[in-house]
Amino acid sequence: MTEQPNANPQQPGDPAGDRLAPRPLARPAVDPAQAATFGRPRGVDGAFDKLYQTGTNGQTAPGLNLAPPTPESLAEAFRRPPGAEGVVLERPYGTNGSEPSANDAEGPLWTTTSDPWRDPGSGAVLAGPAVQQETEEATDAKRPQGALLSLPEVLFGRRVQTKALAILAAVALLIGAAGGLIGWWFADTGTELTGEASISEADAAKERPAGSIADIAHRVAPAVVSLEVFKPGADAGQQGSGVVIDTQGYVLTNEHVISAATADSATKITAVFFDGRRVEAKVVGADPKTDLAVVKVNVENLTALQVGKSADLAVGDSVIAVGSPLALQNSVTAGIVSALNRPVTAGGDGGSAPVIYEAIQTDAAINHGNSGGALVDATGALVGINSAIRSSSAEGGSIGIGFAIPSDYAVKIAKTLIRDGKVVHPDIGINASSTVAGSSTMGAQVRNVAPGGPAAAAGIKEGDVITEVGGRLVRDSAELLVAVRARDVGEVVPVRLVRDGSSLVVDVKLASD
């Protein structure tokens, strides 16, 4: 580096001659906006404390431009009142709120000399309250009691005439009524989904003309009972229905309903009437071959069912089944006669012989427990004893195919049981089976002939096919049996049969089984 001329001049008094003079001050240009904000007031060249230095006569330093004088309006509003110069604005009170005494008074809180922050040019200083606070007792004593306000004055601020109040109430009622009507109209027509329902109701009671199902059920119910068959101590028993056929207490039912009582004398039978009465029933007689039985109850004022003629029925006639299906007492179902003279084979459970009888077929719902109950016609007369059903399930529910023993035959058996306690049936003295499908002749084919029996005496041989008994068509072995049992013991009936392709008729005198 080369030295610049006069870069390091020697200072006077510096023996070494190696000290440098101070650099000249760098004074950048001052921004006029910053100078106006942060610069000294106009006319001030020295330090800021010169602003507050006063002269000997209390005036500010000469050459200073201070704040402009206070406007006259503010000075008049906030200056001391005339004659109050030198009086401070606040002084503490003495004890009990009295004027301060010479002993307890303190000096003014603000003075021009004790407060270093006090502006000497201020026009106000703090002092005590201008008015002494009055006590509540003194205030109440000075304030007079005013008159009490009435309701119109409270509500309306002044007195109101009674007529004006009445008019106001009427107007309020009119407005409320109009609002209610408008609200009702909107509620009634506002939506199509809601509104007042117009439900038509019958004024009179239900019509139950004579012969209606309700009328028949009302008349038949007292004569139909529920039979409960149980052995004391046993967990289960049998249940069915019965029909009172005589006011002396005779009840007709199915033999399979009370079979447990006939097999074991310890088993009890209870008859339950429609009004809830429960009485014990005794077995009068039972006939397993026709599935009919009679029991008797000791009850006064019994209602017996009128017995009609089942022979007068026609297919399509209305019938009603009454009984206790599945232990549901006094159940009523209605239907029609589906078929007549229908040979039915039922029973055969537990090794017992099957029961074959001629039945009335009906579509009135019949279920377990209906057995022994009544099948009545449109007049309410007994035309059958409900006995069996055809079912498509193991539980045996109704599918509209039920069977009832015709009343003509059932009452005949019942009278015999009441009179003799047992029934003797006519017998032809043969064993037969139905002809196989495809045979040239339809009927009951003789399998064997009892020696010395009615058939043997009439010349009937094994292999013959019986087609009619007493003028009644026989199409299978079941129809042969019911046709024979429809006759009486000792009666002679013509029997048509086919032998070696030839038809012939023989007379058979029926014997007892």
TrEMBL record:
<feature type="compositionally biased region" description="Polar residues">
    <location>
        <begin position="53"/>
        <end position="62"/>
    </location>
</feature>
<feature type="compositionally biased region" description="Polar residues">
    <location>
        <begin position="1"/>
        <end position="11"/>
    </location>
</feature>
<keyword id="KW-1133">Transmembrane helix</keyword>
<dbReference type="InterPro" id="IPR001478">
    <property type="entry name" value="PDZ"/>
</dbReference>
<dbReference type="GO" id="GO:0006515">
    <property type="term" value="P:protein quality control for misfolded or incompletely synthesized proteins"/>
</dbReference>
<dbReference type="GO" id="GO:0004252">
    <property type="term" value="F:serine-type endopeptidase activity"/>
</dbReference>
<keyword id="KW-0378">Hydrolase</keyword>
<dbReference type="Pfam" id="PF13180">
    <property type="entry name" value="PDZ_2"/>
</dbReference>
<dbReference type="InterPro" id="IPR036034">
    <property type="entry name" value="PDZ_sf"/>
</dbReference>
<dbReference type="InterPro" id="IPR009003">
    <property type="entry name" value="Peptidase_S1_PA"/>
</dbReference>
<comment type="similarity">
    <text>Belongs to the peptidase S1C family.</text>
</comment>
<dbReference type="GO" id="GO:0042597">
    <property type="term" value="C:periplasmic space"/>
</dbReference>
<dbReference type="InterPro" id="IPR001940">
    <property type="entry name" value="Peptidase_S1C"/>
</dbReference>
<keyword id="KW-0645">Protease</keyword>
<keyword id="KW-0472">Membrane</keyword>
<protein>
    <submittedName>
        <fullName>Serine protease</fullName>
    </submittedName>
</protein>
<keyword id="KW-0812">Transmembrane</keyword>
<feature type="transmembrane region" description="Helical">
    <location>
        <begin position="165"/>
        <end position="187"/>
    </location>
</feature>
<feature type="region of interest" description="Disordered">
    <location>
        <begin position="1"/>
        <end position="108"/>
    </location>
</feature>
<dbReference type="Pfam" id="PF13365">
    <property type="entry name" value="Trypsin_2"/>
</dbReference>
<feature type="domain" description="PDZ">
    <location>
        <begin position="410"/>
        <end position="501"/>
    </location>
</feature>
